[in-house]
Amino acid sequence: MVSYLQAQNLTRRVGDKTLFSDLCFSIGEGQKVGLIAKNGTGKSTLLNILCGNDQADEGQVVFHNDLRVGYLEQTPHYPLDLTVIEACFWHGNETTNLIREYETCMSSVSQEGLQDILDRMEQQKAWDYENRAKTILSKLFITEWDKPLAQLSGGQLKRVALANTLIMEPDLLILDEPTNHLDLQMIEWLENYLSRSNITLLMVTHDRYFLDRICSVILELDEETIYTYHGNYAYFLEKRAQRLEVARAEVARATNLYRTELDWMRRMPQARGHKAKYREEAFYELEKLKGEKVKKLKEKEPETSTFQLFNSSTFLGSKIFEAEYVSKAYGDLVLIKDFYYNFSRYEKLGIVGNNGTGKSTFVKMLLGLVKPDSGRFVVGETVRFGYYSQDGMEFDEQMKVIDAVRKTAEYMDLGGGQKLSAMQFLQHFMFSPQQQQNYIYKLSGGEKRRLYLCTVLMQSPNFLVLDEPTNDLDINSLQILEQYLQDFKGCVIIISHDRYFMDKVVDHLFVFKGNGIVKDFPGNYTQYREWEKLEPAAPKPQTAPRNNQTTPSNQTTQRERKRRMSFREKQEFEALGKEIDALEQEKKDIEAALSSGTLSTQDIIDRSKRLPVVNDLLDEKSMRWLELSEIE
Q1: Helix 567-596, helix 233-267: angle, nearest 10
Q2: Which of 310, 456, 462, 593 satisfies CB 3.0 to 4.6 Å to 314 for a cystine?
Q3: How far, in Å, CA of 285 to CA of 2, rounded?
Q4: Does the fold of domain 307-531 match that of domain 3-237?
Q5: What is the band of 355 on the pLDDT scale with cuts at 50, 70, 90?
Q6: Which of 389, 387, 397 is nearest to 448 (CA)?
Q7: What would the pLDDT profile of 151-181 be if each residue is shown by its tens digit?
Q8: Which residues have CB under 8 Å from 216's CB, separation 6+?
Q9: pTM score, two decimals?
Q10: What sign results for the dihedral spanned by CA atoms 337, 340, 346, 349?
Q11: Starting from the edge strand earliest in sequence, which strands make up the sheet with 321-330, in order?
Q12: CB-side exposure of 496: number of CA atoms within 13 Å?
């Protein structure tokens, strides 16, 4: 396998903090690699170093010759006076630079070197670059080519940047949080695109379904070093658990040895102390080592078992809220129309839908931040909202972490005379006592998001309204938030594009379909998608009969007449059953092999490429089998 990228002994420090030290890893042709780490440990810094946007303090990055690299930043930056199509030419790459070189040559008098440029443009297929750009933008539902970037939403700008990266057709694609601000339809499109593509990929994402279905190698950045797992996310969880089990065993051994040595130190007569000085020195070294091991283990396993104890017990009455035939539109854009719903106590509701269908507007109307055009929201007197907004994070950067939370509340009232201090609460959300004394400007983007979440929860609300709470949070933070919400003694509304998160937390959905249509679905997101696949397509509207054609009411249509299978259909039906069984067995075998940890690198690549093909064949043949099974 050809090595596309090699990281050799990379070290990076920020002030007195070491992000990583002597990192060594490589990415081979065709591999799809996911990078996992806690917020603030240097994931984005590492990607910037790999892409040449930042420098390591020590070490080097070696690329394969003539490798074309595409990089999607976590927060794309463009001059806002550019149009959408101009933005696709703004970030310099080999093709866009060649197009500019051609335009400069054509505008010169001598046109020196024109033939060489034309040859290179032909070789790189630069002539259809704009058409390729428009094709990919269209697939990402960006069709207004001349629209200024200043008029785009955050999600639309992210899609333009994603299109810009994909248009390059890079050999190595590096993505930093590609699913942030993308709606579910776009996430599933990107997931499908990357799964089927032979492109080499390195990405940071906290979308666990996305990781599991795309990546065949996981890199974990932890303890200032890299751990490599040759398998998908599920395999990573299994092997990481084994690694932590080994770490716990080491801590247990160190603790037992420490107790033995401590007992010896206490029993040792002072007069004979000089005779065992070496052992005394070894004891202090062991004490230090034990402390370091315990500290590292606690960092890996944040405390979550007590979350159910510190959920606020603020009283919540039976009346929560009632949406009484609410409508809202902006010009011709209808977001919600004559919507009625009576929200029950302790409901945990997820809101999903494409960007621009009115999800955030709905919760803002509930909170009284936006007025409906007609109808009203009647909110119960005991309801106490806690609102986490997509763009509501504002801090004094010179303030300390602990002070930002204490500004909201010194204590969280647990009821029954129990209280939880701001410091204790922050520790549950992985802010160590040392980190709590840091200034906010030193935090990473994900750590600031986590802090903002803490300030919301510290208000002791009994009704949480969370608008995209999962953006920029690392997987450990997501697991803690999931546990908190599962144990939360109150109501929850969540807008999120994180399918795994929604499946874990909510018990039913509002699906915003556009044009004012909102569907109430009793289940989680995965169940909704399965139901949607089974739902029959809506019948096409009937047209008036032409000439002497009879109407369906007067004559039974061919579609309504039942028929029996033909001989060929019976043969096809039987063959499909056998093929589906074989494909299901092949899928199980591939998944088992990928999880075994015994495959070579090339075998992992081959099976990872085969798995999406098998899934597609299964879907195709299963649909045909269902069609035939409905015939008598």
Answers
A1: 20
A2: 462
A3: 45
A4: yes
A5: confident
A6: 397
A7: 887 778 888 889 888 887 889 999 999 988 7
A8: 31, 32, 33, 230, 231, 232, 594, 604, 605, 608
A9: 0.68
A10: negative
A11: 333-343, 321-330, 374-379
A12: 30
Three-class SS of residue 390?
Answer: coil
CA nearest neighbour of 499 among 179, 197, 195: 179
- pLDDT tens-digit series, residues 314-332: 678 889 999 999 999 998 8
Q: Characterise 606 by phi-psi region: left (phi > 0), alpha (psi -120 to 50), beta (else).
A: alpha
Q: Where are the beta strands (DSSP E) in 354-435?
A: 374-379, 385-388, 411-415, 418-421
Domain limits, the chain: 3-237, 252-300, 307-531, 567-629
Q: What's at 473, amino acid-wise?
A: L
Token pair 């002994």: residue: 9
> Phi and psi for 459 in degrees, rounded to 5?
-75, 0
Residue 353 vs residues 497, 528, 601: alpha-carbon distances, Å: 9, 12, 39
- C-alpha span between 341 and 322 (Å, rounded): 6
Name the residue type at position 476: N
Q: Which two tokens stand for residue 134?
A: 């428009």
Angle at 40 between CA 159 and CA 24, to 5 degrees: 90
Q: How far, in whole angstroms, is CA 243 from its chain's centroid? A: 24
> Per-residue pLDDT tens for 285-324?
656 655 655 555 555 554 444 444 445 556 788 899 999 9
274 exposure class (CB count in 10 Å sphere: 0-12, 13-18, 19+) = exposed
DSSP three-state, residue 57? coil
Alpha helices for 323-400 (secondary structure H)? 359-366
Mean pLDDT, residues 270-291: 56
**Residue 270, exposed/middle/buried by CB under 10 A (0-12, 13-18, 19+)?**
exposed
Region 127-136: what's the mean pLDDT?
78
Contact criterion met (CB below 8 Å) for 158 and 181: yes
Tell me what pLDDT residue 349 has.
95
What's the CATH architecture for 307-531? 3-Layer(aba) Sandwich (3.40)
Annotation: CATH topology of 3-237: Rossmann fold (3.40.50)
Tokens 């206490």 locate to 266
List helix spans (H) across 51-183: 84-90, 94-107, 114-123, 129-139, 154-167
Give SS3 for 82. Answer: coil
- Whole-Å CA distances, 533 to 509, 527, 623, 629: 17, 10, 10, 17
Amino acid identity, residue 598?
Answer: T
pLDDT of residue 366: 95
Closest Cα to residue 226, out of 59, 413, 74, 97? 59
Position 435, amino acid: Q
Q: 359 Cβ partners below 8 Å, 6+ apart?
A: 351, 352, 353, 467, 495, 512
Rounded Cα distance between 389 and 493, Å, is 12
Residue 398: count other Cβ atoms within 10 Å of its Cβ: 9
Strand partners, 104: none
Please say whether the beta carbons of 525 and 496 come within 8 A: no
Q: Is 417 exposed, middle or buried (0-12, 13-18, 19+ CB in 10 A)?
A: exposed
More confident site: 372 or 549? 372
Q: In what order do the strands lie in the sheet with 17-28?
A: 17-28, 3-14, 58-63
Which 8-state DSSP code applies to residue 550? P
